[in-house]
């Protein structure tokens, strides 16, 4: 049997998929590393001492200009909504509605100004809130940002709100409840309203209006944030060009009018849209209408030195963060890359003092950005080095000139006209630095790379096609491996080598991902090229696909029964048996629905009761009942596995592995039961035993880990569960069909005559030594492969059950039951269809196996969203904290992809099971454990030994099975990838499609690795069987 | 002979087809509040009753199964009773299957059961009419190449179409479109009905096109 080529081929195909996933991911996910540092008042980048002394109390870094601020966020306030054009005769429903802003801007030009507020894509509310508070362009919404806490959406890095709270400001919030998740427990007071239902235009707005004026009047706040959602929801429901929008905007106008009446002189009012909307009222992408929001600034004291420009200025959204921070006298958040809006700092004085003021804020801002870039480049390499170098030069030049200039100003060495021009040029140098820094960062963080996404998609699709074709073509011949594996691999290596050489010559930065995807593409091309060259006459690709369609058509028609072969009565019995199995499958599927977790998008959904740990159960009786049920189920599982093994005679030998199955399995169950008991007991009831419990909670899981890994090691060392009785010396020609360990009276009745017979024979053989007819009876050889797999699966199942909450063991039992039923259905259906090709697993079996895997992903209480991950799994067997991130990641990953792991490892069973269940065709009544007779020409090689008979076919079958599995998995993945790519502008992309894609691709990686492990386990067993046979022959 | 048979089949199927349409339209003239979506359960009842009566009448008139061996009155009665029991059992079975496929177990039992009755009308009742209460014959007809007359081929096609239609009808239920027809079991029963109607039209056409290949063995 060729083992290595098969594994190599599968590993190569996996690599192709991984390269595709990696390439797509690098184009799709906007990765940026979050820095944990945060700014503080005492940071050394504050202005020089002589300026610091002049800081009024309550100010950090720069003098505080306003003691209070109101930030009104009107969701999806497009610039056109806020603009007022009196000349327009017949305005559209969304035009000329915010007349009050226009009134303020024209009547008090030094107090108010309207800006274009440029949002960075993705223009979804959560990302915009992050941008508006942290001061950098978008990152992934959830928690994929490296280094953040996975459990919540909460913003971990330094942000404006954290700075405000840290410096003792009272922040009051009202409106969109997205903020609650982002800033838990940051608000002095808060009024959250549900934001999810986009059809509901009024709940949030009316709720805010109810609280807004009383709160403002009460004065118990320093910063007030009101986030209105009506306009956005109206856009989603009706679109902007609708009378409802006019009503909504008019309502906003009235709200602003009365709000301004309530404000004091020391208050800054900011009205901002977080993003715009398209003509259909949607947002999320980067089209002009989506990114073009409005910002309106107003205060009752003069803000601006000059009147407004003709055309409103465009301000990037991140600029709001440093501006507000410095205006309110708090430090700028650490990771901000925005630029201050300097005209707000000009104050009342003359041009020179205004310029000096602006210069000082620019200086602070530039220092902060430089500090951020420096610490960022220390942890991440994604900013290009030469650009950073250039920025560094710009910065140091500007700072140097700044110190010189300040010294000259101190010494009064400069006269106003020259001073003004030098100040102007210095300001523009700072501006240039800040803008370039932002451009560099945005460029490397904020873009989808469509080329990479398409490339990744194509790679994955081509890999799927390759899988399909290879599974059709696969033969065990050397020429197949040469043309379909060796040459493509060489091609890939060649391209990788060339790229490496190019790297050596050009000294360009080498992107490992790009190199590997080029190599993957090249090796794929190699495969197709050789395939084409090998089969020039064969109908090309199109025909293959047509063949597939044809095959699909065949699937829907029930397979023709082999009536002539089986006879009608047995045929009917088979049909009924099959129907019962299908009914059982349906029952399993239906029952597994009880374990589902909920998504937040479905408000009426209630999560399954079984998901919560037993410890949270109040009712002691129910708790005990459930506990007993779970333990009984575990014991039942062990009993079932053991009786299966006994039935096939795999429990007879005295190998360490068999001993482990006999004694270790119950021990594992005992440990798990103890752990559950300890973990679910009420904390206070135990009193003095508290410390003991603390130890036990850690010790029992470790015992299970240890036992399970011991079992797996034993399995790897000696996977043979065969009991061989060498009768070549002693026994005669008759081999009694011994039924294993006697379990019933009938067996006992059967055994005693056998013993007698045996004794008789040994007497006889002693008498007639010399003419001995040697036989070896091997018990359990017919199911040696599947026995090893089943032992491995059971051990894995124990581990995974330990990681889940107690009552999910029910779901796991269902999982095993359903897998068992599926295997039986597959076997029966095959028996009905007639054994056309016993060595190839039909597609429907692979597809149903994979569908069951995805079904049980959901039925073990998971959902492809981040809040649904079971974080508790990281602390099974660990007390409080982990020193590294690797171990909890492994534990949580194993918990999340439990069903993927089990089904992928168990995949070879699809091939083995029909052989295991095979009945001897001649005699139905014969015991299943057919003793294998060695050194004798007996035509009945039973069960899995058929596989050994034709090792070529066996290895091909394994390869085909693996390829089919990967093909179906890859098709699922491809669908997710395509959805994520096509819908990357969708409103819900970061809530639905991106997490789904991530879970799917991670699941693919886990599944494919586990598939390789499962197949290599089968091969390991095959090795062991070979050595066993050679030993036997030598003896 | 064959052409005439196909024409008869086509006529019968057309009658069924229009009867289904009429059940959706006619009651509207009698009751003002009647709509297929609004008073769905009423429509389900009416449709089931109409289709089953029409089928029984057609069966009596056309007599597609030509082998009335023993026609004693008692035999007929027992046959009829057996048919009723089979029909009722198939309703229960369909109900169970629908629940296994994910219908709510405790809530909206009436809806689920009426849907099961509709499905039985479209599938089991036809079988009972054409094949009689004879499970062996059913298995024969639904296995490959088992049909022995155009009536049986037609039966096979309509049954499969209705069940497939019901299955496809479940697809839009989880979508968030908030349409009135996404409520259980409207989309499924509509899917089954459309599938049945499609099957009624497809069956004679398919038989007509494949009449050369279709060589029915006599029993």
Give a brief outline of the structure.
Chain A has 1035 residues and is mainly alpha-helical. The longest helix of chain B has 28 residues, at 73-100.
SSE map:
The complex is a heterodimer of chains A (1035) and B (219).
Chain A: H1 4-28, H2 49-52, E1 68-74, H3 79-82, H4 99-107, E2 112-118, H5 125-134, H6 160-166, E3 171-176, H7 178-182, E4 189-193, H8 203-218, E5 223-228, H9 230-238, H10 243-262, E6 267-272, H11 288-291, E7 292-299, E8 314-316, H12 320-327, H13 351-379, H14 385-410, H15 416-445, H16 450-473, H17 478-506, H18 512-534, H19 541-556, H20 563-566, H21 568-592, H22 620-647, H23 656-680, H24 690-717, E9 723-726, H25 745-767, E10 776-779, H26 784-803, H27 809-833, H28 843-859, H29 886-896, H30 898-905, H31 909-916, H32 945-949, H33 951-982, H34 989-1034
Parallel strand pairs in A: 1-5, 1-6, 2-8, 3-4, 3-5
Antiparallel strand pairs in A: 2-7, 6-7, 9-10
Chain B: H1 2-25, H2 27-30, H3 40-62, H4 73-100, H5 109-122, H6 124-131, H7 135-142, H8 150-169, H9 186-209
Helix pairs in contact in B: 1-3, 1-9, 3-5, 3-6, 4-5, 5-9, 6-8, 8-9
């Amino acid at each position: 049997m060729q083992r290595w080529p098969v594994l190599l081929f599968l590993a190569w195909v996996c690599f192709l998929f991984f390269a595709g996933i990696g390439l797509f991911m690098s184009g799709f996910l906007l990765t940026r590393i979050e820095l944990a540092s945060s700014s503080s008042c005492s940071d050394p980048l504050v202005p020089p001492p002589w300026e610091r002394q002049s800081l009024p109390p309550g100010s950090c870094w720069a003098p505080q200009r306003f003691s209070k601020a109101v930030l009104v966020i009107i969701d999806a306030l497009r610039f056109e909504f806020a603009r007022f054009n009196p000349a327009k005769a017949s305005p559209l429903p969304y035009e000329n509605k915010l007349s009050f802003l226009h009134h303020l801007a024209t009547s008090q030009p030094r107090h108010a100004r309207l800006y274009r507020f440029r949002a960075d894509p993705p223009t979804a509310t959560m990302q915009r809130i992050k941008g508006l508070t942290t001061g950098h362009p978008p990152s992934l919404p959830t928690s994929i940002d490296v280094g953040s806490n996975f459990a919540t959406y909460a913003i971990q890095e330094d942000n404006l709100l954290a700075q405000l709270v840290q410096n003792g400001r009272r922040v009051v919030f009202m409106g969109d409840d997205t903020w609650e998740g982002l800033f838990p427990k940051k608000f002095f007071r808060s009024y959250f309203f549900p934001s999810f239902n986009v059809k509901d235009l009024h709940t949030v707005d009316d709720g805010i209006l109810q609280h807004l004026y009383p709160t403002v009047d009460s004065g118990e706040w320093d910063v007030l944030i009101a986030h209105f959602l009506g306009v956005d929801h109206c856009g989603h429901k009706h679109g902007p060009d609708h009378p409802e929008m006019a009503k909504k905007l008019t309502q906003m106008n009235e709200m602003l009018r009365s709000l301004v009446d309530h404000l004091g002189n020391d208050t800054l009012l900011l009205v901002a849209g977080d993003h715009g909307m398209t003509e259909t009222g949607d947002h999320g992408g980067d089209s002009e209408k989506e990114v073009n929001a409005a910002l309106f600034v107003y205060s009752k004291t003069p803000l601006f030195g000059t009147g407004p420009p003709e055309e409103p200025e465009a301000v990037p959204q991140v600029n709001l963060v440093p501006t507000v921070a410095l205006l309110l006298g708090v430090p700028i958040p650490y990771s901000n890359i925005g630029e201050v809006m300097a005209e707000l700092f000009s104050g009342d004085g003359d041009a020179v003092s205004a310029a000096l003021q602006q210069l000082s804020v620019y200086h602070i801002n530039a220092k902060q950005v430089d500090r951020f870039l420096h610490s960022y480049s220390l942890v991440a390499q994604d900013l290009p080095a030469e650009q950073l170098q250039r920025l560094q030069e710009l910065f140091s030049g500007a700072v140097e000139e700044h110190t010189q200039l300040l010294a000259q100003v101190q010494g009064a060495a400069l006269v106003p006209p020259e001073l003004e021009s030098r100040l102007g040029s210095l300001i523009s140098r700072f501006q240039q630095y800040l803008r370039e820094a932002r451009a560099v960062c945005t460029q490397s963080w904020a873009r989808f790379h469509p080329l990479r996404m398409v490339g990744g998609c194509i790679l994955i699709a081509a890999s799927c096609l390759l899988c399909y074709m290879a599974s059709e073509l696969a033969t065990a011949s050397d020429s197949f491996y040469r043309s379909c594996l060796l040459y493509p691999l060489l091609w890939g290596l060649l391209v990788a080598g060339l790229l490496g050489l190019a790297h050596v010559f050009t000294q360009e930065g080498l992107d490992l991902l790009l190199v590997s995807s080029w190599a993957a593409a090249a090796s794929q091309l190699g495969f197709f090229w050789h395939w084409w060259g090998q089969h020039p006459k064969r109908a090309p690709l199109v025909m293959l696909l047509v063949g597939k369609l044809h095959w699909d058509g065949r699937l829907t028609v029930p397979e023709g029964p082999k009536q002539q072969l089986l006879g009608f009565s047995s045929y009917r019995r088979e049909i009924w048996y099959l129907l019962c199995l299908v009914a059982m499958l349906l029952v399993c599927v239906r029952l597994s629905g009880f374990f589902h977790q909920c998504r937040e998008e479905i408000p009426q959904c209630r999560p399954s009761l079984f998901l919560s740990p037993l410890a949270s159960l109040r009712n002691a009786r129910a708790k005990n009942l459930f506990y007993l049920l779970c333990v009984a189920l575990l014991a039942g599982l062990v009993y079932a596995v053991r009786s299966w093994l006994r039935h096939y005679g795999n429990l007879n030998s005295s190998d360490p592995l068999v001993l482990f199955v006999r004694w270790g399995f119950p021990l594992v169950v005992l440990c798990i039961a103890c752990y559950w008991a300890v973990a679910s007991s009420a904390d206070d009831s135990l009193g003095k035993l508290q410390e003991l419990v603390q130890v036990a909670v850690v010790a029992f899981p470790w015992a299970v880990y240890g036992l399970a890994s011991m079992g797996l090691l034993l399995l790897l060392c000696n996977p043979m569960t065969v009991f061989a009785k060498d009768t070549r010396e002693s026994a005669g020609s008759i081999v009694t069909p011994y039924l294993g360990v006697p379990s019933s009276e009938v067996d006992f009745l059967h055994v005693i005559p056998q013993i007698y017979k045996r004794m008789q024979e040994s007497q006889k053989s002693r008498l007639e030594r010399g003419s001995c007819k040697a036989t070896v009876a091997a018990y359990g050889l017919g199911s040696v492969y599947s026995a090893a797999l089943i032992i491995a699966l059971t051990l894995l199942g124990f581990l995974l059950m330990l990681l889940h909450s107690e009552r999910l063991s029910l779901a796991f039992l269902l999982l095993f039951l359903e897998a068992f039923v599926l295997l039986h259905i597959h076997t029966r259906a095959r028996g009905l269809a007639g054994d056309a090709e016993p060595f190839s697993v039909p597609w429907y079996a692979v597809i149903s196996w994979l569908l069951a895997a995805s079904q049980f992903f959901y039925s073990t209480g998971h959902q492809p969203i981040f809040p649904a991950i079971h974080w508790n799994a990281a602390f099974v067997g660990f007390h409080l904290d982990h020193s590294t991130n690797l171990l909890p990641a492994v534990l949580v990953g194993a918990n999340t992809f439990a069903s993927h792991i089990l089904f992928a490892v168990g995949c070879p069973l699809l091939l083995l099971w029909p052989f295991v269940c095979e009945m001897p065709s001649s005699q139905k009544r014969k015991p299943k454990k057919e003793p294998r007779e060695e050194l004798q020409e007996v035509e009945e090689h039973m069960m899995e030994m058929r596989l050994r008979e034709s090792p070529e076919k066996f290895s091909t079958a394994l390869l085909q099975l693996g390829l089919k599995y990967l093909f179906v998995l890859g098709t699922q993945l491809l669908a997710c990838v395509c959805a994520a790519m096509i819908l990357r502008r969708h409103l819900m992309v970061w809530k639905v499609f991106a997490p789904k894609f991530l879970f799917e691709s991670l699941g693919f990686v886990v599944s494919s690795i586990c598939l390789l492990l499962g197949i290599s386990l089968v091969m390991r067993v095959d090795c062991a069987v070979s050595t066993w046979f050679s030993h036997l022959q030598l003896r | 002979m064959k052409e005439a048979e196909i024409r008869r089949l086509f006529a019968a199927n057309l009658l069924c087809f229009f009867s289904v349409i009429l059940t959706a339209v006619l009651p509207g003239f009698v009751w003002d509040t009647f709509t297929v979506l609004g008073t769905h359960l009423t429509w389900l009842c009416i449709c089931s009753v109409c289709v089953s009566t029409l089928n029984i009448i057609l069966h009596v008139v056309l007599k597609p199964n030509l082998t009335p061996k023993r026609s004693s009155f008692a035999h007929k009665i027992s046959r009829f009773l057996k048919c009723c029991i089979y029909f009722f059992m198939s309703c229960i079975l369909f109900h169970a299957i629908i629940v296994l496929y994910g219908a709510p177990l405790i809530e909206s039992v009436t809806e689920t059961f009426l849907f099961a009755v509709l499905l039985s009308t479209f599938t089991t009742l036809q079988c009972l009419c054409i094949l009689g209460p004879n499970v062996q014959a059913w298995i024969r007809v639904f296995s490959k190449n088992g049909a022995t007359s155009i009536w049986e081929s037609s039966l096979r096609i309509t049954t499969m179409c209705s069940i497939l239609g019901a299955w496809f009808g479940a697809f839009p239920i989880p979508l968030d479109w908030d349409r009135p027809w996404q409520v259980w079991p409207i989309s499924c029963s509509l899917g089954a009905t459309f599938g049945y109607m499609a099957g009624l039209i497809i069956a004679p056409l398919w038989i007509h096109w494949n009449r050369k290949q279709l060589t029915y063995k006599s029993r």
